[in-house]
Write a structure and sequence with these properties.
Rossmann fold, 21 helices, 434 Repressor (Amino-terminal Domain), eight-stranded mixed sheet, alpha/beta, disordered C terminus, single chain, Four Helix Bundle (Hemerythrin (Met), subunit A)
């Protein structure tokens, strides 16, 4: 995420290291490089110019005192400006005091709008809500089928009707939600390949009919400045409450994330970081700014770990480790929990400095799958007592899992090392919370570098 921008900013910072004072002369060339990087990232021209001017005004003339270096000072200023540019603080969804809360989701076709509806519904269900999904894109049967499929996966009802116009459909859905005590209504509206009057008028009619408490605009972060222009067109007609950036796990240049708040003055509320229904995160400007500057995002990493690791299960696991009873069944369970947290590259990228370290490293995401296959090819006895796995058993396991004997040896060695490390942690008074943090950082799996 934002790799090119990150490297350009780092290069610019290097130019003023060793200076006793930040002046216009010694900062000019570096900031020009940052400006060009922003434009390469497809950031709005006016936004980029103002961003650079604001940094100049705050940086020039500042004396470098104590142990603070010019590089550290300029990083702090750039960080603060990035946070301001992207919205300063986390913006939550507005929930109605009188259910149901009505959320209208708008955007272009192909932006990930329908998938986002499913992700949001699952997210709200985890919070104890009872969502209802509404298939309002009546022009694309595939969109209706997709929403129904998503609803089945997360056991959330999907409201749809044939031969009913979208406005009437939305009204009927709200009435249904009231009748059956669904406290959140998520309306997936129709999209087009480009902004057109018919689509805008229909969306406006739905808004006027059901009076949503929240209107979210979904846009593809990989489209950069085009996403910002589309957001402006939608905002002019719908006055939406917030933005959702999808495909943030792809080769995004960052233009949408850095421009959209400044152009439409509406906060980014969520980012979508993958295809799975769990790959939805609240948008924290400070955390994204930290990632852009190569400082990682440990808070998000910890939050993901907390979501997947149950305190009671952790206590049971700690007891097993203390008794030296941690076996391959437990190992497999922990790996599966890590898989739910996201891709290894994404997780490792949240650690400070790792974005840069991993830039030219290919991480084998299939490594975890191979470990899982090896363990599942073992007998119950072998998983419970790995020390009985001799040469002939390793050969059988390798054949059963479609891997090599070397892969099996490597996995068993990894498991034995993990056992020793866990035992040392418990002996040294280490808390299970620290262990969970280590697991969440990918500690239980080698990154599978090739």
């Amino acid at each position: 995420m934002f790799e090119n921008l990150q490297s350009k900013i780092e290069s610019a910072i290097k130019r003023i290291r060793g200076q006793a004072k930040i002046t216009e002369e010694n900062i000019e060339e570096g900031l020009l490089e940052v400006r060009n990087a922003l434009l390469d990232a497809d950031v709005n021209l006016q936004v980029a110019k103002k961003f650079i001017e604001d940094i100049k005004q705050k940086a020039i003339g500042l004396d470098v005192k104590g142990n603070v270096t010019p590089g550290q000072l300029i990083v702090k200023i750039i960080y603060d400006e990035l946070v301001t540019l992207m919205g300063s603080a986390r913006s939550n969804i507005t929930m109605s005091g009188q259910p149901p809360t009505i959320i209208m989701v708008a955007g272009l076709q192909g932006s990930g709008k329908t998938t986002f509806c499913g992700k949001l519904a699952k997210n709200l269900k985890k919070q104890g809500k009872q969502p209802l999904l509404v298939a309002g894109d009546i022009y694309r049967p595939a969109a209706i089928d997709q929403l129904k499929m998503l609803g089945e996966q997360i056991t959330i009802p999907v409201f749809s009707q044939e031969g009913v116009n979208p406005v009437k459909l939305a009204e009927e859905a709200v009435a249904y939600a009231k009748r059956y005590a669904r406290d959140v209504v998520i309306i997936d509206t129709a999209g087009r390949l480009s902004v057109d009057e018919e689509m805008m008028q229909e969306a406006e009619n739905i808004k006027n009919a059901v009076k949503p408490h929240e209107i979210l605009f979904v846009c593809d972060s990989m489209t950069g400045q085009d996403a910002v222009n589309t957001a402006k067109a939608f905002n002019d007609r719908l006055a939406f409450n917030g933005v959702v950036l999808t495909k943030m796990d792809g080769d995004t240049r960052g233009g949408a994330a850095l421009s959209i708040k400044a152009v439409v003055n509406k906060p980014i509320k969520f980012i979508s970081t993958g295809e799975k229904l769990d790959n939805l995160e609240p948008f924290y400007p400070d955390r994204i700014a930290s990632r852009i500057l190569g400082m990682g995002d440990v808070l998000t990493l910890v939050e993901r770990a907390q979501q997947e690791f149950d305190e009671e299960d952790a206590k049971k696991l700690e007891d097993k480790i203390k008794k030296n009873e941690f076996d391959l069944n437990d190992f497999l369970e922990q790996l599966n929990q890590i898989k739910k947290m996201g891709s290894l590259r994404d997780l490792l990228g949240m650690l400070p400095g790792m974005d840069k370290a991993l830039k030219n490293v290919q991480i084998d995401e299939r490594a975890m799958g191979r470990v899982e296959a090896i363990i599942l090819s073992m007998t119950k006895q072998e998983r419970k007592h790995p020390k009985i796995i001799n040469g002939s058993r390793r050969k059988r396991i390798a054949m059963g899992s479609g891997t090599s004997i070397q892969d099996v040896n490597r996995m068993i060695k990894q498991f034995e090392d993990m056992q020793k490390m866990m035992k040392q942690m418990t002996k040294g008074g280490g808390k299970m919370g620290a262990l969970k943090g280590m697991m969440g950082g990918g500690g239980m799996m080698p990154p599978g570098r090739r």
